[in-house]
Amino acid sequence: MRGAYTTGVLTWLIDHGITFDNHYGISTGAIYLCAYLLKNKEDLYEMSTNHIADKKTIGIRPLLREGQIVGYNYLFDYIIPDVLKMDMKKLKEITQKEPAKVGLYDLSIDKTIYVPIPEMDDHFQMLKGSVTLPVIGHKVTVDGKEYLDGGITDMIPIEQAIRDQNEKFLIITTKPKDYVRKPANWFLTTVMRLAYPKHKQIYEDYKIRHIHYNEQIGLIKKQVEEKKAVWLLPSQVMNVSRLRGDKEDLKKLFQLGYDDAEARKEEIFALLKDE
């Protein structure tokens, strides 16, 4: 649900005609990246405010209907292709010229991989895998391989962007500036181990998830200090968490993302200037 902040920023970027040489999305940021690349502001708004807060999406209804607390099948098999009519063929054409990668946790090798959008399936199943939280959702199978949310290790895809030799970065994250991720508690790590008995590495990765996150934040701060990055994150604390937030709160968070980008437009324009 915190992704409403991301969609506010992305809408501001569309309004100002801002594009990039490369794009990276992880977890919910992956699907919002797709809407941004398609320049579909309505999809960004509707998905992150109205659809995500629908009782059919999170809570008892998807648990009864799909056996998972988040209605990933409802979102990716119905809302995205049939209601929002997101066009995967067009998206693949766009990303031939505007490269974009999505992070997924590949259970066949027990690590996070980054897949170029043109190499993804045509039916949004890899995208579904890229946002499917462990334990909360079912593993997503595509061509015999199983996927989960790449945020198990990479909550922010800054390391991949650096590995790909990008030199400047516009980074969008959804936690407050003073947030420090703490180690997962005993209960969560035990649940992870029981849920994926054949995948010991996912349990090991989850145990040190806070270390990965803090390292990624450290990398971001380094890029900002070197004036190679603009880092956009919520300027206010909102009443929204990963799985909690009503439509009005999400609309406020969307607007905060838009307003934060507007407030820092001179920094963004300066970053994007050719040297």
The chain-level mean pLDDT equals 93
Radius of gyration (Å): 18 Å
Considering DSSP H and I runs of 4 or more, what fraction of the residues is helical? 40-55%
Order of secondary-structure elements: HEHHHHHEEHEEHEHHHEHH
The N- to C-terminal Cα distance equals: 37 Å
Unreliable segments (pLDDT under 50, ≥5 consecutive)? Answer: none
Biggest β-sheet: count, sense, barrel?
5 strands, mixed
| Main structural class | alpha/beta
By DSSP, the count of extended strands is: 7
Per-chain topology:
Blueprint: H1 3-15, E1 23-26, H2 28-37, H3 41-51, H4 60-66, H5 72-83, H6 88-97, E2 100-106, E3 111-116, H7 125-131, E4 140-142, E5 145-149, H8 158-163, E6 169-172, H9 186-195, H10 200-207, H11 209-225, E7 229-232, H12 247-263, H13 265-272
Parallel strand pairs: 1-2, 6-7
Antiparallel strand pairs: 2-3, 2-5, 4-5
Which key features would you list for this structure?
49% helix; alpha/beta; five-stranded mixed sheet; 7 strands
Can you characterise this structure?
The mean pLDDT is 93. The protein is of the alpha/beta class and 275 residues long. It is globular, with a radius of gyration of 18 Å. The protein has 13 helices and seven strands. Helix 1 packs antiparallel against helix 3 (41-51). The strands form two sheets. Strands 1, 2, 3, 4 and 5 form a five-stranded mixed β-sheet that branches. It has a two-stranded parallel ribbon with strand order 6-7. The longest helix has 17 residues, at 209-225. It has helices at 3-15, 28-37, 41-51, 60-66, 72-83, 88-97, 125-131, 158-163, 186-195, 200-207, 209-225, 247-263, 265-272, and strands at 23-26, 100-106, 111-116, 140-142, 145-149, 169-172, 229-232.
